[in-house]
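Sample intake sheet
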Amino acid sequence: MKLKNHTTFGKILGWLGFLFFISGLLFFNKSGLMAEDIPAALYPFSLPATIIGIILMLSSHFFKKKNV
């Protein structure tokens, strides 16, 4: 993820989005990477976490530094 041209807020949004996206993928179904260690109560949060992650990563692109 190239965030060189983003503001600090854009970088935070990008990395938070990446964190939500990866955590949503890990919670996804029982074939996830850490599925044995995750309680079954967290499986319903996989799809919303993935969607929130994608939205945050896409919204981080609106916070770019102005070329001076």
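Comment: Residues 2 and 11 are 9 Å apart (CA to CA). The longest helix spans residues 8-27.
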